[in-house]
Amino acid sequence: MAAQCVTKVELTIACTNLLDKDVGSKSDPLCVLLQNTSGQQWYEVDRTERVKNSLNPKFAKKFLIDYYFELVQKLKFGIYDIDNKTFDLNDDDFLGELECTLGQIVSSRTLTKPLVLKNGRPAGRGSITITAEEVKDNRVVVLEVEARKLDNKDFFGKSDPYLEFHKQTGDGNWVMVHRTEVIKNNLNPVWRPFKISLNSLCYSDMDKSIKVVECYDYDSDGSHDLIGSFQTTMSKLKEASRSSPVEFECINEKKRQKKKNYKNSGIVSVKHCEIIVECTFLDYIMGGCQLNFTVGIDFTGSNGPPNSPDSLHYLSPNGVNEYLTAIWSVGMVIQDYDTDKMFPAFGFGAQIPPSFQVSHEFPLNFNPSNPFCNGIQGIVDAYRACLPQVKLYGPTNFSPIINHVARFAAAATQQQTASQYFILLIITDGVITDLDQTRTAIVNASKLPMSIIIVGVGGADFDAMEFLDGDNGVLRSSSGEPAVRDIVQFVPFRKFQN
């Protein structure tokens, strides 16, 4: 989940059974969309057209809004009866409103809710239906390309060819969109298969020119020699198959002008071209995929005694600390994508009652058969109740709780559809003692529908957490096995707490 999840979402609005504020006719409703910035500050994003004389309007105009998975985006839909030509809505009759988050809308795909008045009472029998649709072209082109009999540009040895693909902008300029790898010392190169979005390659226009160009001979000093080029379209490339490749003559114009019997500078052969659809994050969410949120909290002695103001577990006079703030910050985003809002919450590294043996995976509510908490507030309440009952101890082992969630993620892979994704939030002061076991647990989990968010609280050295994040290279297990994908995101809390 390390990449930012942002896309555009189109919202379609319809209402039923609106209040009738007009005498002798029906209301003339309009919908206005407001977005919350902070506190009670709202700004208008857009408004629909006015639908005349209707209590069950279906608005033609759509709302287009940027969707950020990692943010709680509060929206307000206000319905007004428009009886004048002024832009100000204060002089129009208010028919009701709905306040919700964009996350609630996209996770439901179609959200129907009753409208309420400013005082919170029902606006008659009026309701609003909001339908979300992602605005995208998520088609991707998969290409396999090779060449033969390329011109030799090197005196000592053979050419080192690579390809560049360019698309033409609206003003006629060519922009490079892909470059293959360099194949050394080879006049008959076979490049690795590659993917590029259809929009990047040709603006999703099958007949737009693509300059597959410039088959170059690579030189380390940057003075790459042009072997040749050609132009084509996606429609032509699509004809390629392994049994019947599409071939192009690679032409060097300067060479053609100089040599009378010039034929070409080699043949470029497209042996496979396929357009596939790559599912986006929203495809899964809007297709019904549930995010299962689990919390793991560090109760080791390095946090300091909870009754000491210097402890990371110390509850301030208003009842909060960095652990609780991190739970709220991440949990408020995730909860919109989980229908039952029941979240398992665990602690690790403490001595727990009644025997006060050290546990690296204990439910905050001390109920192993039902570790679930009701909503984010339930996690907070369980943490506050648990804190005075345990003794902070050690060591700091992450692998047990990672393996715990991974078992559920592995079970989900047996289902027919991609309906479950698991997110583990580990909140820690950063001092880890089972690094090798944790590396192995993460590498194993990277094959599963699972991500791990590690929030580091306090001011300790978080080098081990940065290492687990894998942003500086592929994380490997202690035996050298690489992670299939990067599933860990580390966040130093104090850097982002505001």
Question: What does this protein structure show overall?
Answer:
This protein has 498 residues and is of the alpha+beta class. The strands form 6 sheets. Strands 17, 18, 21, 22, 24, 25 and 26 form a 7-stranded mixed β-sheet that branches. A 4-stranded antiparallel β-sheet has the order 4-1-8-7. The chain starts with 5 loop residues before the first strand and ends with a helix. Helix content is 18%, strand content 36%.
Please provide the count of β strands: 26
Rg (CA only): 30 Å
**Which structural category do the helix and sheet elements fall into?**
alpha+beta
**Beginning-to-end CA distance, first to last residue:** 21 Å
Taking pLDDT < 50 over at least 5 consecutive residues as the criterion, the unreliable ranges are none
The geometry reads as flat
How large is the share of residues in beta strands?
A: 35-45%
Characterize the largest beta sheet: strand count, sense, and whether it forms a barrel.
Answer: 7 strands, mixed
Averaged pLDDT, please? 90
Fraction of residues in H or I helices: 10-25%
Can you count the helices? 11
